[in-house]
From TrEMBL:
<dbReference type="Pfam" id="PF08336">
    <property type="entry name" value="P4Ha_N"/>
</dbReference>
<dbReference type="GO" id="GO:0005506">
    <property type="term" value="F:iron ion binding"/>
</dbReference>
<keyword id="KW-0847">Vitamin C</keyword>
<dbReference type="InterPro" id="IPR005123">
    <property type="entry name" value="Oxoglu/Fe-dep_dioxygenase_dom"/>
</dbReference>
<dbReference type="InterPro" id="IPR045054">
    <property type="entry name" value="P4HA-like"/>
</dbReference>
<dbReference type="GO" id="GO:0031418">
    <property type="term" value="F:L-ascorbic acid binding"/>
</dbReference>
<keyword id="KW-0256">Endoplasmic reticulum</keyword>
<dbReference type="GO" id="GO:0004656">
    <property type="term" value="F:procollagen-proline 4-dioxygenase activity"/>
</dbReference>
<dbReference type="GO" id="GO:0005788">
    <property type="term" value="C:endoplasmic reticulum lumen"/>
</dbReference>
<dbReference type="InterPro" id="IPR013547">
    <property type="entry name" value="P4H_N"/>
</dbReference>
<dbReference type="InterPro" id="IPR011990">
    <property type="entry name" value="TPR-like_helical_dom_sf"/>
</dbReference>
<keyword id="KW-0479">Metal-binding</keyword>
<keyword id="KW-0223">Dioxygenase</keyword>
<keyword id="KW-0325">Glycoprotein</keyword>
<feature type="domain" description="Fe2OG dioxygenase">
    <location>
        <begin position="382"/>
        <end position="496"/>
    </location>
</feature>
<keyword id="KW-0408">Iron</keyword>
<keyword id="KW-0560">Oxidoreductase</keyword>
Length: 518
């Protein structure tokens, strides 16, 4: 057997990603497809089965796995691939392996995927203010992954450099330069120091660049001597850039609040102490719902125990079949486009109740609890289809509002799906949580300083419109990055069209419904 078998064995011992863009999503396979996948691979190349299904719910593990695919295997490809050579058992083995992986993953993981994993790690580090030393050693909260190697950290910092995130690059390289395994190897320390000096220079801290390299002034490394001379010529004393301090890029107050809410840092204790749980009446007198209020005005609540395991599995299965990278609406509200930036990093799929009648029971429950009419219909629907969402580690949805800007009088927009055309605004959002999340992933409302924790079997609920019919801009909300685990959710947007009798207008512009507060 050629050496790649070991590589594949090693990587596959954990898990194979199934979908494109799997850096941003839960890359686990459902047990059946995993079994299928591995039976096939096992038959062909006698690899072991996967042991730990939660392996990639840790961002460092996800990075390691992708790294094995992308970097570990590339030298194998390079050494085996030969256009004109005779077919031998090595090339057969190689082709077989490649075919098996491409068949089950869709394509061979590439640098784009590794970059996504690097991006997720940097984002999580800054978002959740993780301890850098622990992170490099593979530790996130109470979980332990294999430490990041020198090459891993260099890869991550090269990615930061490519995307001009010099502050992050500097912080990571500083930590790396202090590590024992780097300090004990002059060749590597010089390499890291030169990257660090270059990052300082690009950041505008020229004298700092000089200082880093001066520590190696005894070295005869020609590149280092050249760099040192160059930075020294730029670092003229007293120039304004020498006074520049190293600090993260400025962010808006709203984004700071968003991040702090995600970390759970800024919960106002007086406000918290007034929050209550209610046994709320529903349309059926003996059936009460369990409401936990996270904000009173406007009301944002978490309803507990509103979806059971069967419906959860059904929505997840539909999602797995239909997933594609999440889209956001473009500015002009006409087309949906795939976003390659970091605004929304997740996968979505739409589940239709006409095709899946078992979901109708679930929708009736939403109507019962909210008092709104959520019936899904093929024409003039009172709700949109279920949108199934999955976020893997680092996955998130930046602050946004759910309303679309349509009214009942807006002429149908042909680019929209039929459930959106002519059905008016998204009066309310009902979002089922289909999983728990080990860390991160909360739904937060920066303008309200409110936070809904992800609780499997529960659902978040709020109105996007006031009783007057005006949209409510205070409903700005976000899905926090998943730090550990995998988050599954499903939106049911309840449309204006069905609520003529269920939600009557108020007399004043800011009237709200009367709901229990004590
Ligand atoms: O995942 C979340 O917590 C929020 C998702 C969301 O806001 C949306 O899909 O519109
Ligand atoms: Fe949303």
């Amino acid at each position: 057997m050629f050496p790649s078998t070991n590589c594949l064995e090693d990587a596959n011992e954990h898990r194979l990603p199934k979908v494109n863009h799997f850096f941003s999503v839960d890359i686990s396979l459902e047990p059946t497809s995993r079994k299928r996948c591995f039976t096939s691979i096992t038959r062909q190349i006698n690899t072991k089965s996967i042991k730990d299904v939660h392996y990639c719910e840790n961002p460092i593990n996800a990075f390691h796995l992708l790294s094995r695919f992308v970097r570990g295997w590339s030298h194998v490809f390079d050494s085996i691939w030969c256009e004109d050579c005779d077919v031998d058992r090595y090339s057969v083995d190689f082709n077989l392996t490649r075919n098996v992986v491409e068949k089950h993953i869709g394509r061979w993981p590439s640098k784009i995927d590794m970059d996504g994993a690097a991006n997720a790690i940097i984002r999580l580090w800054s978002f959740y203010q993780l301890d850098m030393n622990k992170l490099l050693n593979g530790q996130i909260l109470d979980t332990q992954a294999e430490p990041l190697s020198i090459d891993d950290v260099i890869y991550i910092t090269r990615y930061a450099d490519d995307t001009k995130r010099y502050y992050e690059e500097i912080e990571w390289l500083k930590e790396l330069l202090n590590r024992n395994d780097v300090q004990n190897n002059e060749h590597i320390s010089i390499k890291v120091a030169r990257f660090l000096a270059a990052a300082y220079y690009k950041y505008g801290m020229h004298s700092q660049a000089v200082e880093v390299l001066e520590a190696f002034s005894n070295s005869e490394h020609t590149g280092l001597i050249r760099d040192l001379r160059f930075y020294a010529s730029r670092a003229t004393d007293g120039s304004k850039d020498n006074k520049k301090a190293l600090k993260p890029a400025a962010i808006s107050r709203e984004d700071r609040t968003y991040m702090a809410l995600c970390r759970g840092d800024i919960m106002n204790s007086k406000k918290q102490s007034k929050l209550r749980c209610f046994n709320r009446d529903t349309r059926i007198p003996i059936y009460k719902s369990k409401e936990e209020v996270v904000n009173y005005f406007p009301r944002v609540s978490l309803f507990h125990d509103v979806i059971g395991e069967e419906h959860i599995q059904l929505l997840k299965q539909i999602g797995q079949k239909l997933f594609q990278r999440s889209m956001v609406k473009s500015e002009n509200q006409v087309t949906y486009q795939e976003v390659s930036d970091n605004f929304r990093v997740s996968q979505t799929a739409w589940a239709n109740e006409t095709a899946n009648p078992a979901l109708q029971t679930l929708t009736r429950r939403v109507s019962l609890i909210t008092g709104l009419d959520a019936t899904y219909k093929d024409v003039m629907s009172h709700s949109e289809m279920y949108q199934v969402l999955n976020y893997g580690v680092g996955g998130m949805y930046n602050p946004h509002r759910d309303y679309l800007g349509y009214t009942l009088l807006t002429p149908p927009n042909p680019v929209e799906t039929i459930d959106v055309q002519g059905t008016g605004e998204r009066t309310a959002t009902w979002m089922f949580y289909l999983s728990d999340v080990k860390a991160g992933g909360a739904t937060v409302f920066p303008k309200l300083k409110a936070r809904v924790p992800v609780v499997k079997g529960g659902a978040a609920f709020w109105y996007n419109m006031k009783l007057s019919g005006q949209v409510d801009s205070r409903t700005l909300h976000a899905g926090c990055p998943v730090l550990l685990g995998s988050k599954w959710a499903s939106n049911k947007w309840i449309k204006e069209s069905g609520q003529v009798l269920t939600r009557l207008c108020g007399l004043n512009i800011d009237d709200i419904e009367i709901l229990p507060t004590k």
